[in-house]
Design the sequence.
């Protein structure tokens, strides 16, 4: 999230707009992503030891070797997977050219918000450090040490004070959100302030000419649309009635404008919302899971469908322009997806989850 | 993504130069005296050689840069990268052949 991240990190990357080197390198790295049949082998493996043996021959080998010094458990394998992801992200950011690095760090800024929100939620719920720290992913401008320091703070106020003291770009938003949180007692106020800050900050950074900025802007706009749609579904499900729903609207989406959002939240039920969204880019995916929603009665169904749509769009960027930033964005998403899937398999193996259930939980393999 | 304006400029300039080389040579044949003809042919051959060499250099720079990126992650692809890196040399060879043909065109003074 720090705008100077590209200059503070030692970079040997090509300057200007040379995408040849970085994209060829990323394509090489992409060829080492795990295939579906390999994930199947891991899922069907008998135990954790077998899983680690299989993974040791892949990209994750060195990280596993390092982490397993602490003993073989789901936790240590999880640490290895996370370390590998962080290392890979840093490596890619290190050799991207200046333009691509700026665009990618802007999109990765959402992980800073995600991490801070995780810490804040954990503090409100009174969780211990080790209970939530594995959920943090230091792939934004906040590194592992920063997140360790934040998560070690005793309460929400201390977290906010630390962020303000460090003078992070979102310190102002955190301070304002904290004041609102103190008044209402709702952590959502603080989270909303962070989300709003990020979308405005990212939109202003991506407001530049060129095809690459347009690709990154499109990704951001879909993310904002998804946030607004998920909020719409939540408000519909909770049937909050008198609450001022427009407060939760985030500016900067492509399809869900302020007017459409107001229209959607005023509708009588989710069916009507789905009807209204028909014909937009989100209509089909939401329609496809409408029956499943009726079965399980959880909006996570829609959330998952929209996230899958975003992931599919981003993965598709790699097939587009071979000399654009899409290749890097697509690879980083694919890597994140792979690590998430591996973590699901590891957790599933650790708690003895049935194979079919693990397969169902995996994201777009 | 290749900048469309730049791509248009490169294609336009290349087209212009390609049209210019034979035009210069034939103009020398048609209207000039013996020495003007030699000069014009030398200029035509020079342009053919220079443009093809610059084009090959540009292509090799791009291929080299991408090749270095590939080799950093997949050293086993080294042979392919060397082959690809050498391919644009053909452009210079073709430019050389064009230059030789231009220089060796018979001079027919008016």
Sequence:
């Amino acid at each position: 999230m720090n705008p100077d991240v590209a200059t503070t990190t030692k970079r040997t990357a090509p300057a200007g707009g040379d995408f040849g080197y970085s994209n060829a390198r990323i394509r090489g790295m992409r060829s080492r992503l795990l295939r579906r049949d390999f994930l199947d082998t891991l899922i069907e493996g008998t135990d954790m030891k077998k899983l680690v043996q299989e993974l040791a021959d892949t990209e994750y080998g060195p990280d596993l070797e390092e982490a397993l010094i602490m003993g073989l458990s789901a936790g240590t394998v999880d640490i290895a997977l996370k370390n590998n992801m962080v290392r890979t992200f840093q490596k890619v950011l290190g050799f991207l050219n200046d333009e691509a690095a700026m665009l990618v760090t802007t999109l990765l800024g959402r992980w800073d918000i995600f991490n801070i929100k995780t810490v804040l939620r954990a503090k409100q719920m009174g969780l211990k450090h080790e209970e939530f720290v594995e959920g943090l992913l230091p792939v934004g401008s906040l590194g592992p040490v920063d997140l360790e320091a934040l998560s070690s703070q005793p309460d929400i106020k201390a977290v906010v004070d630390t962020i303000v003291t460090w003078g992070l770009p979102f310190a102002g938003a955190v301070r304002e959100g904290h004041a609102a949180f103190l008044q209402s007692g709702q952590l959502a106020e603080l989270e909303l302030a962070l989300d709003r800050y990020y979308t405005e900050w990212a939109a202003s950074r991506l407001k530049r000419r060129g095809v690459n900025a347009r690709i990154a802007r499109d990704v951001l706009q879909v993310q904002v649309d998804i946030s607004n749609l998920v909020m719409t579904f939540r408000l519909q499900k909770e049937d909050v009635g008198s609450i001022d729903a427009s407060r939760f609207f985030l500016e900067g989406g492509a399809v869900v404008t302020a007017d459409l959002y107001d229209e959607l939240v005023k509708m009588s039920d989710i069916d009507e919302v789905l009807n209204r969204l028909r014909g937009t880019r989100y209509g089909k995916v939401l329609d496809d899971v409408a029956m499943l929603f009726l079965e399980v009665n959880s909006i996570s169904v829609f959330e998952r469908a929209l996230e899958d749509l975003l992931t599919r769009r981003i993965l598709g960027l790699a097939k587009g322009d071979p000399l654009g930033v899409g290749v890097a964005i697509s690879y980083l998403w694919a890597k994140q997806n792979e690590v998430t899937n591996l973590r699901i398999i590891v957790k599933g193996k650790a708690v003895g989850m049935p194979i079919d259930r693990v397969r169902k939980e995996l994201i777009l393999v | 993504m290749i900048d469309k304006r730049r791509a248009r400029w490169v294609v336009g300039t290349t087209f212009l130069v390609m049209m210019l080389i034979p035009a210069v040579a034939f103009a020398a044949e048609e209207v000039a005296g013996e020495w003007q003809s030699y000069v014009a042919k030398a200029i035509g051959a020079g342009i053919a050689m220079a443009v093809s060499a610059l084009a090959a250099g540009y292509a090799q720079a791009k291929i080299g840069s991408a090749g270095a990126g590939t080799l950093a992650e997949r050293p086993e692809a080294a042979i392919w990268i060397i082959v690809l890196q050498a391919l644009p040399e053909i452009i210079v060879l073709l430019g050389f052949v064009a230059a030789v043909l231009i220089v060796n065109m018979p001079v027919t003074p008016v």
Q: What stands out?
A: The first helix of chain A runs from residue 5 to 8. Chain A touches chain B at residues 14, 18, 20-29, 31-32, 95, 211-212, 321, 323-324 (CB under 8 Å). Residues 1-9 of chain A have pLDDT under 50 and may be disordered.
